[in-house]
Amino acid sequence: MASIEQLEKIANAWWYYSAELADGLVAHGQYPSTFPYLPRLLMRRADLTNADCLDLGCMEGMLQVLMHRGGAKRIVAADAVPHCTEKMATLQEVYDASWTFKEIGLMYDLSHKFAADESFDFVNLSGVLYHVFSPMHTIASVRPLVKQNGLFLVSTNVINEVSDTMQFNTAGRQEAESNTFWYPSISLLEYFLRYFNFAPIDCVFVPIESKCIPGYGNISIVCRAVGQAQALAANDNWGKDSIRHSWEYLSLSKQRYGSQTPDSTIGYAVPPALQDQVNRTGSFNLYQAVNELGCQVDGTTSNIQDTYLLRLNDQN
Question: What's 1-56 look like in SS3?
Fold first, then answer.
């Protein structure tokens, strides 16, 4: 077990998440203490008992601790580079949690970086899509890793509008961070998800003040992995044809259908405001959910358990 002196040294390093390492000793991350952590809000609604879980872009491993405490059977933490392995090992020791780490490089062609038959009940991709040149390519490569009927949690910065556009972080006008690129509209992100056979079943949005992008904010979405073209609108003949015949699609998103892929039985507690629509149609309109159905939260919360801070006794 690490000594208190060793923990104090680790706590003084750079952290993305905030984490309690001992009574009264907290490693402080990059977010205000009252800012809500949207993936955490949604992941606690998933029944992770005996689930195979994958976290893409894991950083120090906050979500892996919560997956472990949620009863997950197998947890894989993956990131582009092994830049947080010491802090990850510290959390594993302090929180008595176990998972495996996999270095995967750029977030493309992900299905080629895992075993050919490897798939998961629950896959998280949070805080990644704005860091990649091609969000569409990344979503395409995630889909083969999710079991049929499994859950995909995706979180990224978006623009709260109905349009078929993404805005680029030209000259760092929104974010000075050099690896930040794209901000899709909510409706375009929804179409990307549906195009790759992900049907949204829950979401939460937080508005973020911006001097240059009206409607800017962060969204987390939970999707069910459904069969070929089942998430698209019935009259979307272009989408259905593209899924079946596009060279890009067939090469970059090597999905398996029917008996070729294992089924997941993972449960999810859809909130009451969305239950009726999800029960009737299997999904809902993201923009409507954010703007009319109450799937929006303030940028501050008084509930510490909803923030980026992981405490020793937290269970979810």
Answer: CCCHHHHHHHHCCCCCCEEEEECCEEECCCCCCCCECHHHHHHCCEECCCCEEEEE
Cβ neighbors of 136 (< 8 A, separation 6 or more) are: 192
The one-letter amino acid at 143: R
Q: Please tell me the predicted confidence (pLDDT) of residue 257.
A: 84
CA dist 166 and 143 (Å) reads 21
d(CA 264, CA 120) in angstroms, rounded, equals 8
Predicted model pTM:
0.97
> pLDDT for 280-297, tens place per residue?
999 999 999 999 999 999
- Which residue bears the tokens 């809500």? 36
The ranges assigned to domains in the chain are 36-57+107-309
Q: What is the mean pLDDT of residues 110-130?
A: 92
Contact by Cβ (8 Å): 284, 274: yes
Tell me the CA distances in angstroms from 11 to 16, 17, 27, 29, 313, one per residue in order. Answer: 11, 11, 4, 10, 18
The rounded distance, in Å, linking the Cα atoms of 35 and 23 is: 22
pLDDT reported for residue 256: 86
Find the Cα–Cα–Cα–Cα dihedral 42, 48, 53, 57, rounded to 10°.
30
Q: How far apart are CA 214 and CA 201, in angstroms?
A: 26
